[in-house]
Design brief:
Structural class: alpha+beta
Strand content: 15-25%
Largest sheet: 10 strands, mixed
Oligomer: single chain
Number of helices: 13
Distance between the termini: 109 Å
Number of strands: 17
Order of helices and strands: EEHHEHHHHHHHHHHEEEEEEEHEEEEEEE
Helix content: 40-55%
Length: 499
């Protein structure tokens, strides 16, 4: 039966075989001699013992007996001091030691986990503070609900994403895997760099803390900074969420968000995509910059070499210049305006006049923009089957005396690059009006992605005596005795007032 010895390594108790004990003792003495003249050698030796203890627990388990073969395996993983010494002697001056670097691998961190170690694993892989990852996750998980746009599905998506990453990303169980999370090997050189880095960081933190706590002014400044950062955070997240909601979260018509309306409007550019991008960038980038500034103030991040703040500012300047340039081009079809007026006599002497807004296609039941009052009537909608906007001229009733002639007057307003072109367009684009005995039929203008809305619109004025009753028969009945407007977003009508 082999003799065993009870020893303590890295504040952990181990049972080791006698041969293994002498091997451990000899290895630690070699390490101690190697780091004798190195700064912070005491802390480095403590780190080496802790790493050795981790490897023993990994290979033998808690309460297992450490054999000589296990000690040799651990020594091979950590590396022999004489090997590092030889490499230092042959390495040219200025040569950077990269032996301790290994390719980073994404693992879940079991030593710093709250649930599954996903956030801590991501933080290790991307070399950022784990608190920041968790705070950002919570903000994006609940933030959309606070902004009132739960239907975007952000909480459920993030929860599902976390569960998937929990299942897909492996857990770092071995010492090698835990080191690979940070892109480092478990050998002596890496332990030395890690300990010196931690000691240097601790020294900076102590100096920074000493500076920050000089008097109450520093404390007050820190409190003000936190308040400002929180305000920036709330404003930025609210702005980003509101813009996202407006751009993609509401429908002006069925299956059509506000951005899609650009496809139905004539512009000076063939493709409005770039105009959409620069407008969205111009509005969104300031909020993204505020978010970056808020996170930096809250967590005291160092500004990286790429300087994200400067990049965001330059992108915003580019988008601003792009808006000016593209606005000039896109607005060219609207630089000049012209009006054309016409008149049609009404031969009917009936005491009731009927108006039909005629359309051969299907009229939606609950997606019609409708505005009617005591003397006006406006209506348009989106034909989902033909993917076209159906727009009728607006109607105005003008009451007059019995002696004055009954007449229909109309005005066509047109826009174009030149005034002559606008005049010609206004004369050609007269409203579609058909007059019967006591019936006026109004025809619509149809706009789609090929025939786009170019700003041309019609106004029809009907001059009638006070005692003549006027009734709109279709598509929605109205007798001009009440005020009715459709609710936003174009989902039906409600009566505002009735007299």
């Amino acid at each position: 039966m082999k003799k065993v010895v009870k020893i303590s390594i890295g504040n952990l108790a181990f049972t080791v075989e006698q041969e293994a004990y002498y091997a451990i003792k000899g290895y630690l003495e070699e390490v101690q001699d190697y780091y004798e003249n190195v700064e912070n050698n005491k802390e480095i030796l403590e780190g080496i013992e802790e790493r050795m203890a981790e490897l023993f627990v990994e290979k033998c388990g808690v309460g297992g007996v450490v054999s000589l073969s296990v000690v040799n395996d651990v020594a091979d993983i950590l590396g022999r001091p004489e090997v590092f010494a030889e490499e230092s002697d042959v390495r040219p001056s200025g040569f950077e030691n990269t032996k301790g670097r290994v390719p980073k691998k994404l693992y879940r961190d079991p030593d710093n986990k709250v649930l599954g170690g996903v956030c801590s694993g991501l933080a290790a892989y991307f070399a950022i503070d784990v608190t920041l990852v968790r705070v950002l996750y919570v903000i994006f998980f609940f933030g959309f609900s606070f902004l009132g746009i739960v239907h975007l599905g952000a909480p459920s998506f993030l929860l599902l994403a976390y569960i998937i990453m929990w299942l897909v990303i492996p857990e770092a169980r071995t010492v090698e895997q835990k080191c690979a999370m940070y892109g480092e090997s478990p050998d002596l050189s890496n332990i030395q760099r890690k300990m010196q880095r931690e000691l240097s960081s601790a020294g900076r933190s102590m100096r920074r803390a000493a500076t920050q706590h000089r008097g109450s002014i520093g404390v007050l400044g820190r409190i003000i900074g936190i308040i400002v950062a929180v305000v920036f955070l709330v404003v930025s997240l609210t702005g980003i969420g509101s813009i996202t909601f407006f751009v993609a979260g509401i429908e002006v018509f069925e299956e059509m968000v506000p951005v899609d309306l650009f496809n139905y409007i004539e512009m000076g550019t063939v493709n409005p995509l770039f105009f959409k991008i620069v407008v969205l960038s111009f509005i969104l980038l300031p909020f993204v910059g505020l978010l970056y500034l808020a996170v930096k103030l809250l967590f005291h991040f160092r500004t990286p070499r790429i300087r994200p703040g400067l990049i965001l500012f330059l992108l915003w300047i580019i988008s601003f210049v792009g808006i000016i340039y593209l606005s000039v081009n896109t607005s060219r079809p609207y630089w000049n305006e012209a009006n054309y007026k016409g008149e049609i006599e009404l031969s009917s002497t009936s005491d009731t006049l009927y108006i039909d807004f005629e359309y051969a296609g299907e009229i939606p039941e609950d997606a019609v923009y409708y505005r009617a009052g005591h003397s006006r009537y406006e209506i348009f909608w989106m034909d989902q089957q033909n993917k076209s906007i159906v727009m009728f001229p607006s109607i105005r009733l003008v009451r007059q005396s019995e002696e004055e002639s009954r007449v229909i007057k109309y005005k066509t307003t047109a826009f174009a690059k030149s005034y002559q072109e606008a005049v010609s367009k206004s004369k050609k684009r007269t409203p579609g009006i058909a007059i019967g005995d006591s019936l006026i039929t109004i025809l619509p203008e149809l706009y789609d992605k090929l025939k786009k809305f170019d700003g041309t619109h019609h106004e029809i004025y009907i001059y009638l005596p006070e005692d003549v009753e006027v009734q709109v028969r279709k598509p929605l009945e109205h007798n001009f005795d009440e005020v009715i407007v459709s609710e936003w977003p174009f989902d039906g009508c409600h009566i505002v007032s009735r007299f």
